[in-house]
């Protein structure tokens, strides 16, 4: 029995023999969860969720392809069950191709009775990359979509190029990949220490969320070992002292509230510009901080007004106390002087008058003492009120200098994950991908992302890649495309039907600026595409990788932060990561600090000074160091065993790290960049056949600022347009 037969056989054994009328009634009642005689409802829900699809409804895309599925509740429920079941079958065994026939055999009776309907659903899921992607054993022959086998020329063997190559090859296309570097991966690059198992990711590093992330499936296929990353991140100040956790939490909460307020202003109130000027994230955050500072000063003003009122009352009460005291003393003296026997020589009226006067003194003295005591009590109450008020004195400022440095750490982290400095990020659009982010734990790959991509390039597709092939020109017309490239010793041309361009946005920017070292499009790209390329921001991010003989930090923690002295340097080594127990620390350089201009030895010396402040004598000193700088010559210095410094902004095949929507730009720039380019017609318009396709993180509005491994594919006509999904450079 073959593996496929065994799998199908086990599914058939659990098929139910309910009659069609019973099934129809269940479907009409909408009780999908009652179908548990065959499949646990939780399992089907999980399959849909892990495929980024809603369990109990059709997506807009599905409604376009399956209008008949919305004719009735029974039709909808039938479609959803079959779709979720196919997804479940694929995710249970992603190492083997799930054919339509296999799906039909494993569906319970009578859900497989409409074989054409099942094949349609299977074809849809396959075409759009929900099943049969990555590395899997093929059971069926290659798909034949046209009478003539089409050739697709892919430029770039990074994450997008490799993913597209594999999927297009699976769909039966003739694929050629041109890669300018002498290695695969593009901005996914893993450094391997010589004669050691120590690795460090210089580009993509973290799987940002595992729920619904196709990377998880592909890691299973390639047998890559995931390493869970703890979200804990203790922060050390500029002097190496651990920041109090409570203080850290308070500032982190303030940062979150500032972000929520900015989002409310932009998306709920619709305020995205002031006096005709578009607001950047920095504008919004600084204005909110100014408002919070103003509110704090108003609180202080109110506080001191109340303070002054209490002091004024205390002054008045003190005057009353003095007055009552004087009155009491005066009356006591009068009473004392009048105390004694009344002379008998006085007439009765005089004696009566003196007796009445003595009685009045006594009464008034009692009243004065009573008022004195009451006034003293009022004074004591005012003193208590003043003491309590002093305990509630507002801060002199909303954030003092130390708190602001801690807030700058979070700003640096935001620049790190967004790809650009805050003053360049569009307030309106910088967070447009938030609702699409994968949830769940973050993971790293033990042997690095470079190893992961290498494993994706299996023997059946390895020969399709030409390395050290630097593309010089891309010509396209009604007949097809012609790509000219150079190697070390020759200039070559290759013809194809279409070109899938996975060139990073930074290189595209140089191309439209007609730089001599960038590919040239002939004819030039349409004006709206060129404008989008120019407008889209392309940020920078770099790493300082330090390799030691042994760890001297807490290996159970994957992150620790570091505060810098100034706002301008807030992104300089603001965070260190150690994603495994290997003796490797990676210092992050974000924002303005990512534009590394200092010599390599200065950068490493700064990093070691930071570590020495934090770890003291545990930090190694005076060890022989061999540097291996990316794109730089080796040199001898002291300190760690080895170091690597990236400079993605100076890499001619990258020209930066990742894309972002800049301030003042439209939010649909990614959509424009994802549009296919048609050949020029005789009248000069771009109305011919679609010849140029783009893929890459800059073509996905849902996942900008990410070097996603392009694992969700969209096939347009006969060709593949890649949507970026699951890896970030973080």
TrEMBL record:
It holds the Pfam family Amino_oxidase. The lineage of its organism: Eukaryota, Metazoa, Ecdysozoa, Nematoda, Chromadorea. Keywords: FAD, Flavoprotein, Oxidoreductase. This is SWIRM domain protein. It is found in: Nucleus. One of its GO terms (molecular function) is FAD-dependent H3K4me/H3K4me3 demethylase activity. Residues 1-23 are annotated as: Disordered. It comes from Oesophagostomum dentatum (Nodular worm). GO terms for biological process: regulation of DNA-templated transcription. GO terms for cellular component: nucleus. Residues 1-17 have a biased composition (Basic and acidic residues). FAD binds at residues 181, 187, 205-206, 697. Its cofactor is FAD. Belongs to the flavin monoamine oxidase family. InterPro entries: Amino_oxidase, FAD/NAD-bd_sf, Flavin_monoamine_oxidase, Hist_Lys-spec_deMease, Homeodomain-like_sf, SWIRM, WH-like_DNA-bd_sf. PROSITE patterns: SWIRM. The keyword Iron-sulfur does not apply. The keyword tRNA processing does not apply. Residues 44-142 form the SWIRM domain. SUPFAM superfamilies: FAD-linked reductases, C-terminal domain, FAD/NAD(P)-binding domain, Homeodomain-like.
């Amino acid at each position: 029995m073959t593996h496929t037969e065994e799998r199908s056989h086990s599914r058939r054994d659990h098929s139910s023999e309910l009659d069609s009328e019973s099934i129809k009634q269940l479907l009409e009642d909408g009780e999908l969860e009652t179908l548990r005689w065959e499949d646990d409802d939780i399992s089907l829900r999980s399959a849909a969720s892990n495929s980024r699809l809603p369990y109990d409804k059709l997506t807009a895309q599905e409604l376009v392809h399956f209008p008949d599925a919305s004719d009735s509740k029974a039709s909808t429920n039938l479609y959803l069950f079959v779709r979720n079941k196919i997804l479940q079958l694929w995710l249970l065994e992603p190492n083997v191709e799930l054919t339509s026939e296999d799906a039909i055999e494993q569906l319970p009776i009578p859900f497989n009775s409409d074989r054409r309907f099942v094949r349609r659903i299977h074809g849809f899921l396959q075409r759009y990359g929900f099943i049969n992607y990555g590395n899997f054993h093929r059971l069926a022959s290659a798909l034949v979509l046209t009478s003539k086998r089409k050739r697709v020329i892919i430029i770039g063997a990074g994450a997008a190029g490799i993913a597209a190559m594999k999927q297009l090859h699976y769909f039966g296309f003739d694929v050629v990949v041109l890669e300018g570097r002498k290695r695969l991966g593009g901005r996914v690059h893993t450094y391997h220490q010589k004669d050691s198992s120590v690795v460090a990711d210089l580009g993509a590093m973290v799987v940002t969320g595992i729920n619904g992330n196709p990377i998880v499936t592909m890691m299973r296929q390639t047998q890559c070992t995931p390493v869970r990353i703890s979200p804990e991140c203790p922060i050390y100040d500029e002097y190496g002292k651990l920041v109090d956790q409570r203080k850290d939490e308070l500032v982190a909460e303030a940062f979150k509230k500032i972000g929520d307020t900015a989002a409310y202003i932009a998306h709920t109130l619709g305020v995205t510009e002031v006096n005709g000027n578009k607001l950047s994230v920095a504008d919004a955050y600084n204005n909110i901080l100014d408002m919070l500072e103003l509110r704090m000063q108003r609180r202080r003003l109110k506080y001191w007004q109340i303070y002054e009122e209490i002091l004024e009352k205390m002054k008045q009460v003190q005057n009353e106390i003095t007055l009552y005291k004087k009155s009491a003393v005066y009356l006591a003296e009068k009473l004392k002087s009048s105390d004694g026997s009344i002379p008998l020589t006085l007439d009765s009226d005089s004696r009566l008058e003196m007796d009445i006067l003595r009685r009045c003194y006594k009464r008034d003295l009692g009243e004065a003492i009573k008022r004195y005591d009451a006034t003293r009590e009022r004074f004591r109450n005012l003193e208590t009120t003043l003491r309590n008020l002093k305990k509630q004195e507002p801060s002199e400022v909303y954030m003092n200098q130390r708190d602001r440095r801690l807030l700058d750490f979070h700003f640096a982290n935001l620049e790190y994950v967004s790809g650009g400095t805050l003053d360049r990020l569009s307030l309106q659009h910088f967070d447009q991908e938030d609702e699409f982010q994968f949830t769940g734990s973050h993971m790293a790959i033990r042997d690095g992302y470079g190893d992961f991509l290498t494993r994706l390039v299996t023997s059946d597709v390895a020969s399709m890649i030409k390395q050290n092939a630097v593309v010089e020109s891309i010509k396209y017309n009604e007949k097809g495309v012609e790509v000219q490239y150079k190697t070390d010793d020759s200039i070559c041309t290759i013809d194809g039907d279409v070109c899938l361009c996975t060139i990073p946005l930074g290189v595209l920017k140089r191309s439209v600026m007609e730089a001599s070292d960038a590919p040239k499009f002939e004819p030039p790209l349409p004006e709206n595409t060129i404008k989008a390329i120019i407008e889209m921001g392309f940020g920078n991010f770099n790493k300082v990788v330090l390799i030691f003989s042994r760890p001297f930090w807490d290996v159970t923690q994957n992150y620790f932060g570091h505060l810098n002295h100034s706002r301008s340097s807030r992104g300089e080594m603001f965070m260190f990561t150690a994603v495994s127990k290997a003796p490797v620390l990676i210092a992050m350089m974000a924002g303005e600090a990512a534009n590394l201009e200092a010599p390599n030895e200065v950068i490493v010396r700064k990093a070691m000074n930071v570590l020495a402040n934090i770890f003291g004598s545990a930090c190694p000193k005076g060890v022989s160091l061999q540097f291996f700088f990316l794109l730089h010559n080796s040199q001898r210095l002291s300190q760690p065993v080895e170091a690597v410094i990236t400079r993605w902004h100076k890499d001619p095949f990258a020209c930066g790290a990742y894309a972002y929507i800049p301030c003042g730009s439209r939010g649909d720039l990614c959509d424009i960049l994802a549009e296919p380019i048609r050949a020029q017609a005789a009248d000069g318009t771009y109305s011919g056949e679609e010849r140029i396709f783009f893929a890459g993180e800059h073509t996905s509005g849902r996942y900008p600022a990410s070097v996603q491994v392009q694992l969700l594919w969209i096939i347009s006509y006969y060709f593949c347009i890649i949507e970026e999904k699951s890896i970030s450079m973080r």
